[in-house]
Amino acid sequence: MFSAYTTLFRTPGGMKFSIAGFIGRMPISMEGLALIFVVVAASDSYTLAGLLSAIAEITKAVATPFWSRQADRYGQRKVLLFIVPTRTILMAFFIICVLNSTPIWSWFLTIILAELTTINAGGMVRIRWLYVLNKTKADHHLINTAYSYESLIDEFVFIFGPMIATVCATSIHPAAGLIAALFFFCTGLPALALQKNTEPPLTPRVEGEPHPAVLRNIVVQAVALPTAILGGFFSSISICVVSFTEVRNAQGQTGILLALWAGGSAVSAIIFGVVKWKSTPAFRYLVTLFSLTILAIPFLFVTSIPLLALVLFINGLAIAPILITGYAIV
């Protein structure tokens, strides 16, 4: 049943860039939660933490497509070697501002500047899979398996990342979660950048050729809007879980709860990757979106941490299939 994964793992260079990408994208599951911890510790305000988190996510949404385009045109290596030191310095400024209680406007300014250097490491890894599998003329089903595998890796990121961020912020220092995220960032992405053999070829802009905006494509629009709302759902759940555990004096369990959420998604990612679907990705996308909506209703009735853990795990089962089919459609 898992022969597709076995074949995928034998792809030359595949595991090397996948592991580097795994390490390099650990911050995506750590920074939002770590930001909440450090801001709440410094200001005692969930409102401020929520506003900063929202601004950070909006900025990421603007920055990510820009840097992805630059990576296509000039190469992943050049972009990554510029982004890594720049982002590290800017994020360090944000941490310094928060810890030294500088004016609130400086917190917003520094987090915006830092998030303007956000890059889609997961997308870079997926395009490498597409490149090497097409180069070896692999079965098209193997590309679906690669996307499912990377969705599984994403879930591992969201299993371990929140736990690490929580332990660092609650046991060491409120800012330690952000610092740990920077460590993973500065380790994984340079390692990815140095792997030249699997780097996709450049696709420079050719003047005179039409370059219509991708968001004008009605199919992309149909995927982009729900996915944007899904991002808001993810951020909201993180903040709510932190608040829920704090009220019950159990902040140390925040990471475990979010890990269970990602664990549910990991289970569905494994299953999704081995099934040879006969239905279209569009149909599966609609079904999984509807499933997530239904599985979100139980959150309204959660009254205890054990019940929240169960609801999070069940809700997570719908997440990976949405992302996998969304990538397939686009």
Topology:
Elements: H1 3-9, H2 14-24, H3 27-43, H4 46-74, H5 76-99, H6 104-115, H7 121-135, H8 140-172, H9 176-193, H10 218-247, H11 254-274, H12 281-296, H13 305-316, H14 319-329
Helix pairs in contact: 1-8, 2-7, 2-9, 3-4, 3-8, 3-9, 3-10, 4-5, 4-6, 4-10, 5-6, 5-9, 7-8, 8-9, 8-11, 8-14, 11-13, 11-14, 12-14
Computed CA radius of gyration, to the nearest angstrom? 20 Å
Through-space gap between termini: 27 Å
Strand content: under 5%
| Count of alpha and pi helical runs | 14
Low-pLDDT sequence parts:
none
| Largest beta-sheet characterization | none
Quaternary state, please?
Answer: single chain
List its traits:
single chain; 330 residues; mainly alpha
